[in-house]
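quick one
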Amino acid sequence: MSKNLGELSGRKGLIENLFEELGVAATATGAVSKESAEALAQKFLFGKANVYGAATFYDFLRPENKGKKVYVCNGSSCMTAGTQDRLLDKLHTEFKAEEIGEMCCLGRCHENSSFHYNGRNYSGNDIDNIEAIKDGKPQEMDKYNVAAYGTPVLTCDFPGIDEFYKTLNTALALSPDDILNQLKISGLRGRGGAGFPIGFKLESCKNTPGEIKFIVCNADEGDPGAYSDRYLLEHRPHAVLLGMIIAGYVAGANTGVVYIRGEYPEAIAITEQAIRDIKEKGFIGENILGSGFSYDFKVIKAQGAYICGEETALLSSIEGQRPEVRVRPPYPTQHGLFNKPTVVNNVETLACIPWVVQHGGAAFAAIGRGKSTGTKLVSLDGFFNNPGIYEVDMGTPLSVVVNDLGGGFKSAIKAMHIGGPLGGLVPVDKIDTLSVDFESFAQNGFLLGHASVVCLPEGYPVIKYIEHLFQFTAHESCGKCFPCRLGSTRGYEMVNKSLTSDYKMDRELFTDLITTMEIGSLCALGGGLPLPIKNALKYFDGELKQYFEG
Ligand SMILES: Cc1cc2nc3c(=O)[nH]c(=O)nc-3n(C[C@H](O)[C@H](O)[C@H](O)COP(=O)(O)O)c2cc1C
Ligand code: SF4
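structure w/ flavin mononucleotide:
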């Protein structure tokens, strides 16, 4: 069924795109009306139920979003920072209750107090200027620390477009096989969570026959606490775009799709401008620099759904389908966007490619530790004295990140949630044990993931955080498999009941529930949630046992 819909959607492709048109249909009121949904179903021959199913899935298209004017961030970082009650109080003086909605997360985790108004994001002290913001007075972009500890692969100075795109000349003078070989030598692994080597993906797509292929950049950075992809799109968009062009040259793809979360309006605008800039200079388009290779971009604005960060849900989303996770195999490199061979990579992964081409795979492989080569961007939240984005060589001790770069904590912290909602809950006494690389985190029972850090202050009850994680997963579940769809809701109910009544949870039942989610879920949303919960049970048993029987 979803394969057929993919074919159908592919008939109009990216030029007239159902998903984009759903977004346009919701612009005036904040939701897609029944009439618009029916008209789109007719236009795309998609069937009313399919269009309705898609439109009602997304936070910014569904009927509940109608009439919203301002959105408060409800992500984990703003939550543990405790900034949102004051923010809401202030917003209630300026907006009616029904005009205030929620977004998760705006990526302003370095200073919190985050909200979205009229196509722009605000944070920190901005709320104190809400009258001026409403009057349309321009506000500055947010600022945060950016520094490298080791080799600045991604945070190095930008030399200007002409100088930077000399690497495109270098790439086009090489054969796709030569570049593929360098990428394999580099050992570059996906930065979006799974750590899969990019060379294998590109090779698989390259070897799959097909006239039409796609490179998709996954810029749906939904992990609360993470804003490293936002940093790259807003401050180093050309590293991402050039990485995509080179990836296309290797795989034989002529179109790059940048799927950017709707919660990052500034990133969308800056990326679109960067594409216009390189188009003007002839670095994209037909027969680039006389090489015979053609490439162009499409930017897709997402509509508020965490699961669209999962690569197959993301592809369904672009096709205008309800973004449900697909069973693999077949893998996207064989049957991807519109059933065509497709490589999906994270923003940071793609942004490393130009450096590899410029300096060689061996130079990249020389940075880092073991199978974790290169550098990693780490996002530090507002609990650090120096919050910001830090680029560290893989293998850098976590204590260097926390103490030397982050400057330590502003107040007492008991745990750090590293790697997004599906990452591990790291108690502070593990800081000296871990280093920033895939293996160190995995061997110690955690997950490097996106390397985002959300702190849990000393006074924040771990049980409340577990409740939040279940609730988040229940809201974001795509519903395709029952361990996640039902398990997340049942988990939330159990924890909530233990918090709001004298009910005590049955430990065996609770363990069964998270084990079922872990081993029975189709993707890493339901399958990954148990990790931080198991960490919490292991390291914070003293605090949690009062909520269990016996
Ligand atoms: C629930 C869920 C959310 C995800 N969110 C993201 C995301 O926001 N960005 C991302 O790059 N990868 C995300 N991923 C991982 C992607 O499925 C995929 O592995 C990644 O985009 C591949 O790119 P990489 O190899 O460069 O990491 C997510 C996975 C899951 C299961
Ligand atoms: S684990 Fe959750 S999000 Fe993933 S496929 Fe199953 S229901 Fe969908």
